[in-house]
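User: For my dataset I need records formatted as: sequence, then structure tokens, nothing else. Please produce one.
Assistant:
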Amino acid sequence: STTGTTSSTSASSAAKNSWVQMRIFQDQKKSGSKVHAWVAQPAGKTFKNNDLIYLEFEALKPCFIYLLYNGSSDKPDQASLIYPNSQVLNKRLAKGVRFTIPGETQEVLDKERAAFTGLQISGKEGADTFVCLATPMKLNLSDADGQMINTIYSKASALIKDPNAGVEVAANSLDEQALSKAAANTADLSNEVYVGKWLIPHKEN
């Protein structure tokens, strides 16, 4: 088991007009100590398999946030929705609200001990890709089939050439047919949405 505290410093990857900011924290031992701590990492860092991390996302303006994930072992156009993972979480976030992936980063074992929980880096050498859709309107992507998620992911990912960047676009420039099925009001598809893309490169030990 390990104990530690969350680092107060943070490495951010927020574009000038970004709606969402992502930070990566890694489980590391403090220098000269056996005590572990979550330590913020710079964007673009290459991790190794078995490294333990978690992701923190912050809404920089009021919006709904949807996260699509493509792992290094997945096909390039294959993605899954990892947030929100329930209808309860599918709600507008106020500016400054943060959430983490996974939802819990520390598990209490007893009164004196706790263990860190996070995402363990694994899979073939390459990069895990996270694409974010930040929208002013609610989407029902949790009810979408795999083909719709893959289509939206591919369209959104193709808009961003540089890693760890984002862009504002008209919602209907992604995939109007797919989004019209997910949007409660198709008139909202004329609104601007924010598409962010982050890569987490990793290699084998």
